[in-house]
Amino acid sequence: MGAATQVENLDSESFVINSVVFDAPWSWLAAGWRDLSATPMLSLGYGLIFALISMALAYGLTQFGWQAVVIALAGGFLIMGPLFAVGLYEVSRRRADGEIIASDKITFHAPRSPQQLAFMGFILLFLFSAWLRIAFLLFAIFFGSATLPSAERFIPELLFTTHGLGLLIVGTAVGAGLAFIAYTISVVSIPLLMEHRVDVFTAMAVSVRSVMKNPNPMLLWAVLIVAIMACGIATAFLGLIVAFPLLGHATWHAYRDLVHKVPGNSDPTIAS
To answer: The whole model's pTM is what?
Structure first.
């Protein structure tokens, strides 16, 4: 029997946002590492796929002389990453609930709000597209009509020229702003859409409330995500094999630590 796709009448007030301690993100990472260690083949498989796609995109851009876009692409990983980790969330959910984990069931798991999750994907894709357009606009502003520098010249020109430093500083600030918007609306919303039948705006509202109620822990979590992903990218994307599943599993534990559904609200299980 096919999975139902209707959305229940759960609003953002149907969920309680818990207060967490400042160093809670470290416990999320520890829980994520335990999940990764318990399911290494499945988790690292997700990481390998993500790393290979990243390598292919970076190589293709470099071959076309668009190596400058690789940095902008790295920012896109932070925006779109939570959506690609859906299967990892499901692994962590089943482990936390004591369920048997089978790779075929994880890969083709139907989220509770599939259409709304797809809508969330379009929102994040829009933010990513906006970031790419802004990145090209900033390049035109700081480099004028010059073509994209070659791979050998790009980093020195970015770090040791006035216009390069201007692009680096302004681009980093703008990219960080867009990434933080994406982080704020998605850090909780995507796991929530997997577990409950809610609309995307309710899910985003819950995510925003989680960040606003726990500004310091969530800022630390954002910094850890950026640092771990940066390390993964800096190792020629090989580090993403571990970094991506680690953060994916940890994100589920962050969601479970932050969000609690109010008892008594209707949210029946989808038939599969």
So the answer is: 0.82
